[in-house]
Amino acid sequence: MDAWAVLEEAGELTRRGEAFALATVVWRQGPSSGQQGSRAIITASGELRGWIGGACAEPAVIREARQVITEGTPRLLLLGSTGRTGAEVPEGVSVVPIACQSEGALEVYIEPVLPAPHLVIVGRSPMAHTLADLARALGWRATLIDGPDFSAADAGERSLVVVATQGHGDEEAVAEAVAARPAYLGMVGSRKRGAAVLGYLADRGVPADQLARVRVPVGLDLGKTTHQEIAVAILAELVQLRAAGALGGGKATGSAAARTASAVDPVCGMTVTAAASGRPLEHEGVTYWFCGAGCRSAFEKDPGAYLTRETRC
User: Fold this and answer.
1) 136-142 long-range CB contacts below 8 Å, 24 or more apart?
2) What mean pLDDT value characterizes the chain?
3) CA-CA distance, 144 to 150, in Å (whole number)?
4) Of these four, 74, 110, 156, 306, which has the most CB atoms within 10 Å of its CB?
5) Could you tell me which residues are beta bridge partners of residue 113?
6) Residues 179-212: pLDDT tens digits?
7) Range(s) for CATH 3.40.50.720 in the chain?
C-alpha cells in the first residue's frame, strides 16, 4: 500500500466510523528504509497498513500509535538515539530509542483520527429536530428517527441515543434502545414518567442492570425551559460527559483499544510484541522475545550475558 492508497484507506475507515491513527515520516537520517512522506495507518487493534519503516521502527510506531488513539492527542516521535541527529531534541518531541543495525533515525508524526459521535434521536417533536440541528453544528453525526420506525439495529455500542417520543410509544422505543446497548441512553421526560416506563419494562423481564443505564430525565437541569433550551441542555450534558471520557465518544475503548502484550528484548532493550513475530525463546522456564534473528541468536549462545537480576525474576 503506497502513501496515496493509505489516504484512500483512511477515508474509508472514517466513513465507517472507526478509530485509527495516521503516521507520517516527516524526517529521516539514513540509512533507513523509511522515506520522508511514507505513511501508514495503525488501527485500534494494532494492525499496520502501509509502510513507515523496517522491523526496528514498526513495533515502536504501533505501540505509540495505539496510545495516541486512546488519549486522542497527536505526538511527534524521534525513533533512534538522539546522538544520531547531531542536534538538540526540540521541545514536544518524544524520543523512542530503537536498536537497529542500520543506525538510521526517523521522525514520525502520529495523529489520531477519531470518529465523530453518532447521536440517534428517537422522536419527531420540534425539540428532537432542534437537537439534531445543534449536534450537526458541532460536526456530530445525527440521525433522527420516528418512534415506530426505530429498532435496535439503528444504533450501536458507540452510539448516543436520546428517546424523545414523549408519550408516543415510549416503552417500545426505550426497549429497542436498551437492546442496542449504546454508549449513552437518555429519555426525555419527568422522573415520574421515567419511573413508570422503566417499571413497565422491568415487569416484562428487561434486566435491571440494563434499565439502570437509562438517564431520565435527560440533560442538564435548567428548570422550566423551552424546547430549544431542552435541546441545548441535552447536548450540553453529552458534551460534558464526552469531555470527561465517560462516553467513549470517539476515543477507542474496550476490546478495540486493548493493548497487545509487549516485552523487552533482553539483548538490545527494544520493546517488541510478545507474539510469534517476536521470535520467542524459552530459557529456564521463562519466555523471552526479540526484535530480530540477530538478538535471538546472541541470547541463545550466552543467555547469562544479558540477564540481569531483574530479568531473571
Assistant:
1) 138/235, 138/239, 140/116, 141/17, 141/116, 141/117
2) 85
3) 9
4) 110
5) 20
6) 999 999 999 999 999 999 999 999 999 999 999 9
7) 118-243
